[in-house]
């Protein structure tokens, strides 16, 4: 016997359709999508509307939330595949670490399946896109996805909290993820400003990247923009990221000062040649 009364906002109708609590009709029969027990539709002036299991239910709270979230993910993918709904994906921006909000348009997905084996790991849901790519979707209720699994899965994956999926299956707020680097619009606009400024002053694009990716083996330096303290104009500055320091943008110069007689590499202003400092070279 389970002493906890399980309350959920979703149920199955007699004809097996998923029904949200706001669309439920009093007097109709509704069933748990996980254990198939008949649920009680409750609404009141104080408590929020909800479907409730019996007090003596054998349904386990952790199992029902995890299972319900998987069902709702498949439901969202199905509605998207039919062209009925878009899905909003919220992940962490790799630039500013704020929210990166993307829209998954209708018809992006083609299908989804629960409990699929990938690389000897069991994935909660695997969704197929229209261009035949696979995305693993892991549901996190009380236990996060195993780190080994996250590291070794060969396909892109996202981890979603069961509570957020149950609240809105068309809003995917990533608790963790691994897919192509994503940046918010503000960061993308800033990256373009960096590239335009560097192009204006004939700085070779092969020497730098505006993306802050640690241990990037392709580019020696990460670029950014600051305002020069002397001339008050915008100038590019560079942080050494990987590889030899001598393959550097022409604004990085070797300078000597009375305090540092051996000299050091430093950013200089592209306009007035003021010494910006070493801290941008070695962040």
TrEMBL record:
Classification via Pfam families: CoiA_N
InterPro entries on file: CoiA-like_N
Competence protein CoiA-like N-terminal domain location: 25-60
Protein's recorded name: Competence CoiA-like family protein
Provenance organism: Salmonella enterica subsp. enterica serovar Agona
Biological classification of the source: Bacteria, Pseudomonadati, Pseudomonadota, Gammaproteobacteria, Enterobacterales
